[in-house]
Amino acid sequence: MPCLPPLRPYQKEIARAVLESVLGRRGLTFSVEVARQGGKNELSAQLEVLLLTLNMGRGGNLVKASPTFKPQSLISRRRLEDRLRACGYGRFLHSEMGYVLRLGRARQLFFSADRSSGVVGHTADILLELDESQDILPEKYYKEFRPMGAAGNVTAVLWGTTWDDASLLEQAKQMNLELERRDGLKRHFRYDWQEVARYNEDYGRYVEGERERLGEKHPLFLTQYCLESLPGGGGFLSPAQMAQLQGSHSRRHGPETGRSYVAGLDLAGEAGTAGAPNHGGDATVLTIGEVSYKSSLVPMLSGLPQIQVVEQRCWQGEPHDTLFLQLVDLLKRVWGCRKVAVDATGVGAGMASFLRKTLGASVVLPLLFSAQAKSRFGFDLLAAINSGRLQMYQGDGSQEYQECWRQMERARRSYRPNQTMNFYVDPAEGHDDFLMSLALLVEAAGVYSPRHAQGATA
Fold first, then answer.
1. pLDDT confidence band for 369 (50 / 70 / 90)
2. Cα dihedral 25→27→28→33 (10° resolution)
3. Strand stretches in 15-99, DSSP E
4. Where does 5-55 have alpha helices with state H?
């Protein structure tokens, strides 16, 4: 339609297949993987404009579901409304009940596919779409959404980017590939970032920057841009990542003049046995890192902090009043840390509050380990390792060094909907306090702003 932005060849290929199925009442189910920001949402909106136009006289429903109503469904609704108005349909367009756009007698319904949403009873007789379908539970789709199209043999489109091998999108993809092998009819469409970059050079340069920043094996780069599915479980760090994490600098027990330091502090309870670190009890772990902004060989990384782990301290069973005094002395007098990220979850809340009052709100960053936040910490840690910005001190035979690497080797990860990840050490194999302290260190470095000009040691 001339009132809308032109579609790229790969978008047109998807559009033709979907329209042929809709207009021919073939009832096909398509799975569509397009690299992040590759234009799948624009294509979806333009298909909706065309189908609403064709049905504005006779009526009927298009249904679109997203993992959340706010903001995802509302964003889709606004995009469609903008496209309809751009085509001059403003006076024919009506909003109903906050989740319906009506053009003449045809309606587009927007729903949340959240586990708790109630959608049973609605009908899709023109098209059924699931946006970001990798984040929608398979049972939700098959029990509540798919039956909406039964009476009209409706065509369904599952849009998204790859995630793990248990996602709804991956299941639909594998089913479609099997059907394609049987009858030769294309039902799965996949366009990674390199295909999108053929038609948008700026996009290509952006993704290349993301590859340098995150690392080409980072889960988000692999799934959102390369469209490679992640296995359902496994080690958090690969042998290659472990090698990247290992540095050649020496451990230090005190600061060097003119250097800047940040810290990550993972807090444990007071119960347990005091002494050297071991994997038999939960521990409080403090990790100190030197932060610099030296010029990088990779231009995309020049503004990101380089972090060298220079010291680790561990306490088990230490009374919190005694521990507090030691921490204040180490963080303020000894190291003069510019930023300290503290686990403020559960038992850590009180200690984090006291440290914030003593060291200053500008220094102490209390962080809660919610599922979403922990996922971000894990992804940030992987990005720092993959890009070579984070390095451990060289082996010194200490118990801290050995326990830290033991946890790195045993760390696992699991992927969840909404592009989130959990990383942990199985309790049967020990604790993950050194691992979490390292992740907190990366968060502290990420929010530290040096006073000196970028490119000099801060």
1. very high
2. 100
3. 29-34, 60-66, 93-96
4. 9-23, 40-55
b/e for 38-69, b at 16 or more Cβ within 10 A? bbbbbbbbbbbbbbbbebbeeebbbbbbbbbb
Which H or E element spans position 74? helix 74-86
Structure tokens at 284: 């409080």
- Is the separation of the CB atoms in 168 and 419 below 8 Å? no
pLDDT-derived band at 450 (thresholds 50, 70, 90) equals: confident
pLDDT digits (tens, 9 = 90+) for 308-341: 999 999 999 888 889 999 999 999 999 999 999 9
9-202 against 232-447: fold identical: no
Q: What is the mean pLDDT of residues 48-63?
A: 97
| CATH architecture of the domain covering 9-202 | 3-Layer(aba) Sandwich (3.40)
| Residue tagged 């297949």 (tokens) | 17
Instruction: Please name the residue ranges forming H helices in 157-289.
Output: 168-183, 193-197, 201-214, 219-224, 239-245
Closest of 263, 266, 265, 275 to residue 318, by C-alpha: 275
Question: Are 38 and 162 a contacting pair, CB within 8 Å?
Answer: no
Q: Report d(CA 337, CA 353) in Å as an integer.
A: 17
User: pTM score, two decimals?
Assistant: 0.73
- What is the CATH T-level fold of the domain 232-447, as seen in this structure? Nucleotidyltransferase; domain 5 (3.30.420)
Q: Which residue has the tokens 């003069």?
A: 336
Asked if 61 and 100 count as a contact pair (C-beta separation under 8 A), the reply is no
Q: How large is the angle between the packed helices 348-359 and 320-328, nearest 10 degrees?
A: 30
Q: Evaluate whether 277 touches 254 at the Cβ level (below 8 Å).
A: no
The tokens of 79 are what? 């995009």
What whole-number distance in Å separates Cα of residue 173 and Cα of residue 30?
A: 8
Per-domain boundaries in the chain: 9-202, 232-447
Question: 130-173: per-residue pLDDT in tens?
Answer: 999 999 999 999 999 999 999 999 999 999 998 887 889 999 99
Task: Determine if the peptide bond prior to 219 is cis (ω within 30°).
Answer: no
Q: Is 255 exposed, middle or buried (0-12, 13-18, 19+ CB in 10 A)?
A: middle
The pLDDT score that the predictor gives to residue 425 is: 94
Q: Which letter does DSSP use for residue 8 in this model?
A: P
